[in-house]
Write a structure and sequence with these properties.
By secondary structure, this protein is α/β, with parallel strands linked by helices. It is built from 13 helices and eleven strands.
Length: 348
């Protein structure tokens, strides 16, 4: 009978999660728990180059194998084999990551379940085969439970470069100016249009908190610049617009300063959860079944029970039914109520 790896002298472990932002952040739960149960082992991580800042300062990770868009699979496999890993944990489960795992030369390999068939049946035919709601970090952990890895009950991690934080905090304080109430961060973007709460509703939310003396900041990627400009155009008072201007580490610093984060279903939401921020999340085409609700966070998810949800896994460029009711029916007053409630519970 083949021995389990916990019965071996495991020296090196590789975890593979190539992307995206939210998934890499959520994988930190598996990283930490694997380290807890294999304390003598060195853990390395393989991810796409653009996501390296999310894990670079994680004390549980020793080395990072960075995958650039122009890096060939053979080159990555050579790097992996060079390290002679005792265990490989594939948290991606696509063709590329399976190749990396299969040719790693590792004796012990495992892969997390993406539940693709259940997801397909739910999204395409509204047939719910999910017996239980299993958040993505737990799916990641389930891949290594057979090796004796347990769940410490904590949420995801996101570690920030302390020197960068010290330098960048000065800019945030300057941009914020007199802060009579607190600091609220809005993340109005998303990878696909149907996952974005409309800009005019974000502007209504911003006006409410600006009138109460809060400082408002906008964060997001380069692709979110247009929605940031739209929000600014609807406001009489300017807000700190960092959209498309910050690195992932700088975005994390802004989030860490926040008393509250209001966000769509995006990677920023998971970053905020990892930083233990209070969160109001707005979900449209995606639902809890897909596993991406804020994990073990002080968060409120606002969504509408519409029969056509979920209509996609990652969102789409336009509503398949042409009405977009999943997002349009979320009223800014409802978001304000939940935000006020979280803020009234006291600062972190």
């Amino acid at each position: 009978m083949r021995k389990k790896p916990e019965q071996e002298r495991v020296k090196r472990i590789l975890i593979i999660r190539l992307g995206a932002i939210g998934d890499v952040v959520l994988s930190s739960v598996a990283v930490r728990n694997i380290q807890n149960d294999f304390p003598e082992a060195e853990i390395d991580f393989c991810t796409k180059h653009r996501y390296v800042p999310l894990i670079r300062h994680n004390p549980n990770i020793q080395k990072i194998i960075s995958v650039s868009d122009d890096t060939g699979n053979a080159e990555i496999i050579r790097k992996i084999r060079k390290h002679a890993y005792d265990m490989v944990v594939d948290l991606q489960g696509n063709i590329k990551s399976r190749l990396f795992s299969f040719f790693s030369g590792s004796r012990f390999r495992t892969r997390s379940s993406m539940m693709r068939f259940r997801r397909f049946m739910l999204v395409q035919f509204r047939i719910n085969l999910y017996r239980n709601i299993i958040p993505v970090p737990i799916r990641f952990l389930n891949a290594v439970r057979k090796w004796g890895v347990s769940d410490d009950g904590k949420g995801p991690d996101l570690f920030i470069n302390s020197k960068l934080e010290e330098r960048f905090a000065t800019r945030i304080e300057k941009d914020a100016g007199p802060n009579t109430q607190g600091f609220i961060v809005l993340a109005p973007g998303a990878g696909r249009a149907t996952k974005r709460w409309p800009a005019d509703k974000y502007s209504e939310l911003a006006k409410y908190f600006l009138n109460r003396g809060y400082v408002i900041a906008l964060v997001g990627g380069e692709e979110d610049r247009s929605v940031g400009r739209e929000i600014q155009d609807l406001l009489k008072n300017p807000v700190a617009d960092y959209i498309g201007q910050l690195s992932l580490q700088e975005t994390a610093i802004v989030l860490k300063k926040a008393d509250l984060v209001v966000t769509n279903d995006t990677g920023v939401m998971h970053m905020a959860a990892a930083l233990d921020r209070k969160i109001v999340s707005l979900f449209g085409p995606t639902t809890v079944h897909l596993g991406f609700f804020p994990f073990r966070a002080s968060a409120v998810v606002i969504e509408k029970d519409i029969p056509c949800r979920p209509c996609s896994f990652h969102g789409t460029d336009q509503c398949p039914r042409r009405h977009f009711n999943c997002m349009l029916s979320i009223d800014s007053r409802e978001v304000v109520r939940e935000a006020d409630r979280l803020l009234s519970e006291g600062s972190k």
